[in-house]
Amino acid sequence: MKTLDTLRTDAQLRTAHGVSWVVAQTGDHPSRLLHWPWRENPFPTYRRLRERGPVVPSRLPFLTATTRAAIEKILRSRDFGVRPHGDFNVAEQFNVMDLSFLQQDPPDHTRLRKMARPAFSPRRMEGYRVEIEKITEDLLDRALERGEFDLMRDFAQPLPIIVISGLLGVPERDQADFDRIGNVIGTALDGARSARQLRQIQKATAELDMLIERLMVERRADPREDVLSDLVAQHDDGRMSATELGAMFRLLLVAGFETTVNLIGNGVMALLRHRHEWERLVADPELAGGAVEEVLRYDSPVQLTGRWAHHDTEVEGVPISAGQQVMCLIGSANRDPGHFTEPDRFDITRANAAEHLSFSGGAHYCLGAPLARLEGVIALRALSRRVPGLRPTAMPTRRDTLTVRGLATFPVTTGER
Ligand code: HEM
């Protein structure tokens, strides 16, 4: 039986969702981005918003930054932070999980980010390369044996999950639990839409905390070359609390589960829909580096991020007052014709593709960007070398998410049978 509290939370969450839906029906473009059908293909809405200006108001209580120049400025500016200042509380549905320094401003952000940085050092990255190549080849061996497979289920999803589990130091015996927990926690990025989802996220978080605690004890007794061993050492030196360690582990897990999968999925979809670009990659797999940047620009796995103004300020001539929240549309910045010529064209040799904002900018610039790029390049290169005849066998289906943009299923064939 539901308790009164659960019913109240449920009503609040559903009302918040309902209000923005009603506002969306009145033609409020920023609100439309939160809802189906506009969410499915947000690019026409982005264009309309950019035409209205670099920073656009909404009937909901946030501003929307639309152009590359405005968004880059906000992400790099000290006038903005990821948390509101003062007594303002983030709405409950968006505050479902502590994701460590992703959600902190200096000085905590600076201190915690520094502790996670060694995991992504160039030396570690070189070590991961061989491992990622091996995982990629193994997954493809299995998929190709079947002839027809699901690109998401059989390749794009397992690849980054196996990589992040190894990097963090999750042993094989805990892998199945870890997968299940990671999939629930990943949904928290969009906030909760019902009390049921909120409960599931809380339950998964508690399970993960227990798993981490057990692994910490093991690593303390037997340290290895993995991120968990590094973090345990820093915790034991008194540089971070147990709560902070748990949150950091969660952040790396969510980042590993929810992002690169969509770089690969969105990438293969864009390439197969623009067959000429796929053929160019097949003819020269060394174009994979450029292809990854163009995919990130054209169909970014992370479409938006939020900031709060900490001071009265101005962006591209638009005044913004302290306390206002700004939704930064990364996906729109990447299609800004003021920066990218013919932005809706997909071109894997576009000269300035890497100037996308898909990894954000400023202090919160994605820490995992070198790893994501490495995984993306290895995946696209291997696919184009080994499966030149790759083609879809049915329409891909989309995940119903807002912040993260990606596919749920994508049935394909090697084209050889
Ligand atoms: C294509 C794949 C990826 C994309 C598009 C992506 C995108 C992003 C974006 C947009 C942010 C900043 C959000 C903001 O400014 O509010 C971010 C932060 C972060 N990402 Fe990634 N990410 C990817 C892969 C990864 C991977 C594989 C990892 C590591 C396992 C990772 C770890 C992080 C971390 C730790 C942060 C927090 C940085 C900070 O707040 O200082 N990311 N990522």
Helix and strand layout, with pairings?
Layout: H1 4-25, H2 29-32, H3 43-52, E1 55-56, E2 63-65, H4 68-76, E3 80-81, H5 108-116, H6 122-146, E4 148-150, H7 151-156, H8 158-168, H9 175-186, H10 195-221, H11 227-236, H12 242-258, H13 260-273, H14 275-283, H15 288-298, E5 304-309, E6 313-315, E7 318-320, E8 325-329, H16 330-333, H17 369-386, E9 391-392, E10 397-398, E11 407-409, E12 411-413
Parallel strand pairs: 2-8
Antiparallel strand pairs: 1-2, 3-5, 4-12, 5-8, 6-7, 9-12, 10-11
Helix pairs in contact: 6-8, 6-17, 8-12, 9-10, 9-12, 10-11, 13-15, 13-17, 15-17
The structure holds protoporphyrin IX containing FE.
Short summary:
With 417 residues, the protein is of the alpha+beta class. Helices cover 52% and strands 9% of the residues.
How would you sum up this structure, described in words?
With 417 residues, this protein is an alpha+beta fold. The protein has a single domain, classed as Orthogonal Bundle (Cytochrome p450), CATH 1.10.630. Helices cover 52% and strands 9% of the residues. It has a five-stranded mixed β-sheet with strand order 1-2-8-5-3, sandwiched between helices. Strands 4-12-9 form a three-stranded antiparallel β-sheet. β10 and β11 form a beta hairpin. α6 runs antiparallel to α8 and α9 crosses α12. The longest helix has 27 residues. The chain is globular. Bound molecules: protoporphyrin IX containing FE. Protoporphyrin IX containing FE (HEM) binds next to α5, α12, α13 and α17.
